[in-house]
Every structure is written in C-alpha cells, then in structure tokens.
Amino acid sequence: MRSGFVALAGRPNVGKSTLVNAIVGGKVAIVSDRPQTTRRAIRGICTTDRYQLVLVDLPGVQRPRDTLTERMAGRVRQELDGSDAALLVLNGEEGVGAGDRFIARALAEVGTPVTIAVNKIDRLDRPKTVAVLQAGADLGIGDSIFPISARTGRGVAQLVEHLGGLMPEGPLLFDTNEISDQPLGVQLAELIREAVIRRTFQEVPHAVEAIVEDVEYPREGFMRVRALIWVESASQKGIVVGAGGRMIKAIGSAARHEIERVQGCRVHLDLSVRVRRDWRGDDALLDRLGIG
After folding, report:
1. Are residues 215 and 264 in the same domain?
2. What whole-number distance in Å separates Cα of residue 77 and Cα of residue 65?
3. Which of 31, 136, 141 is nearest to 91 (CA)?
4. Gap between the Cα atoms of 214 and 7, Å rounded
5. Of residues 87, 80, 78, 94, the one with CA closest to residue 33
6. Same domain for 7 and 44?
7. Which of 26, 51, 275, 281 is the most buried (most CB within 10 A)?
8. Which domain range does residue 79 map to?
9. How far apart are CA 162 and CA 53, in angstroms?
10. Quick one: average pLDDT of 13-29?
11. Is the pLDDT of residue 281 over 70?
C-alpha cells in the first residue's frame, strides 16, 4: 500500500478545486471563476486498493495584499513543504504565463517531485494542445506532464495512477470511506459562501465570509443550520440582501439545495448578514475561521 499527500499548486482559477472533486468522486471544494475562492488548504481523499492520495487543494498563488492573502500564501508554503508530491495545474486556455513561471520556480526550491497537469484541454484544438504542453515542459520542472479536463474527466485516471505511484509505502492515513477531513461546519460554510460568490457583484466575493454557528438534527433525515454571512461594508450588505430581500432568499435557496445534495438529507437553513469591517485584517478572527 502507498499513501501520502499531493499539494495542488497553480494560479487562481486554473481548475484545482474542480480537479480535486473529480478525483475524489464528491464535492469537497467549492468552485467558482472568482479569485480567492479557495482560502483554506482543503484536503480531498482518494482511496483505491493500492494507494491513498490526500489531495491538498491550495489557495491560488498570488501576491499578498492583506493579512488574509498573507496567511493564504503562508499556508501554500507550509503545505508544499509537508507534501510527498506537488501537482502544478496550468490553464490550457490561457497558456503559460509569468504567474506559472513564478510558481514553477517556487516548486523547484521545495524539492518534492513535481507533476504538471494542463487542464481544460476539452476547450482546445490539437495545435493549441501541443503548444501548451510544450510550454509546460519548458518550465523545466517535473518529469511528467498530463493533458486533462477536470470538467469532463478526460486524462484524470492516468494522472491519478501516476500520482499514486509517487506515494511512499505506508498504511492508510484515513478511513477508506472518507473523502475529506474538513469539519462539518467548514463544509457547510463553504457551500454557503459558494452560493454568495455565484450570485453577487464583482467586488463582494473578496469581502465575504460565512461561518456556521449551529447545526441541529431535530429528527432523522433533517438538519437545521444557522449561519452568518460576513461582509465589510453596509453597501456590500445591501448587495447580498438585495431589494426586498430577494438576493439573500436566492442565496439561501441555492445553498440549501446544495447542502441537501451533499449531505443527503433535508435542510432548514437560517441565514443572517452582518457587517464586520476589515475582517480580512483581523488575526483573531482569521484564527477562528481556520485560515492560515
């Protein structure tokens, strides 16, 4: 048996979270096209009869701008140092850019085995695929490069088999039926934040966070969740609540349906929106949220 940790690195929005979900066969990481969607190091667990991969979906590597993004960058470095292998995910549609070269240099300094995955090849023709694969190889790190589509699953099985072979021999790190090590409260809060991100204007996603205050099971097959959505200004609160409360109702409905799908039970979701100014610079609050 082989088991170990694989850290997924890459620029924001290259598809790391979609890839983790595809590999583990369930939703453990929220997905959107906005930067900073992934703020924590989310672990997804893939177990076969020969190996167990613990996939660490890292925040997208970017220049720190505040305490929040400084902590995210620190978490990236910490997880890379503690991993048995690193997977650099590239966006095939956008090609290789300065950000990818910066991350490649950082990975070379860590010294763990590196594999490259060029994602979104389902959107490329053959000449473009060949060109971006060559550009990935020219980064000069890793011995293997895989063209994949996390959305369709193309090439993912071959990538997983390769990563499994890189893991050290050893016992299982998690039970075979687990697909994530996230606490329930964090899982639910992330699904709520995903619903906010997908339905609000461009400036809100960076300033929004969700926290679950209480989870109850009043009867079998039914979950009651009470949660807060934090924003940084009254104007952002107005966007999230919406005229006549229509936006928060839409957010709540979408989040509830997704929680029901993931948890496999009926859900009553009670959402409130609060203004918490400058929460991204509050160390104590970020500690409470488990970021960094």
Report:
1. yes
2. 17
3. 136
4. 31
5. 94
6. yes
7. 51
8. 2-166
9. 11
10. 88
11. no
Q: Are the beta carbons of 251 and 240 closer than 8 angstroms?
A: yes
With a cut of 50, say whether residue 37 has pLDDT above it.
no
Q: What is the mean pLDDT of residues 28-55?
A: 73
Identify the bridge partners of residue 231 per DSSP, sorted by sequence position: 275
- Burial (0-12, 13-18, 19+ Cβ within 10 Å), 264: exposed
The torsion defined by the Cα of 229, 234, 238 and 244, in degrees rounded to 10, comes to: 100
Alpha helices by DSSP H, listed for 167-208, are: 184-199, 204-207
Which residue intervals of 46-88 are DSSP H helices? 67-81
pTM of the model: 0.76
Please name which of 194, 196, 201, 226 lies closest in space to residue 211, comparing C-alpha atoms: 226
Total Cβ atoms within 10 A of residue 29: 25
CATH code of the domain covering residue 17: 3.40.50.300
Percent of the chain with pLDDT over 70: 82
Nearest to 213, CA basis, from 224, 221, 222: 224
The string of pLDDT tens digits covering residues 60-96 is 555 555 555 565 555 566 667 778 999 999 999 999 9
**pLDDT tens by residue, 99-139:** 899 888 888 888 889 999 999 999 999 999 999 999 999 99
250, 264 Cβ separation under 8 angstroms: no
Q: What's the CATH number where 224 sits?
A: 3.30.300.20
Residue with tokens 């090849």: 121
Q: Which residue has the higher pLDDT, 130 or 37?
A: 130
- Residues 106-112: contacts with CB within 8 Å, 24+ apart? 106/9, 106/61, 106/80, 107/9, 107/80, 107/141, 108/140, 108/141, 110/80, 110/81, 110/86, 112/7, 112/80, 112/83, 112/84, 112/85, 112/86
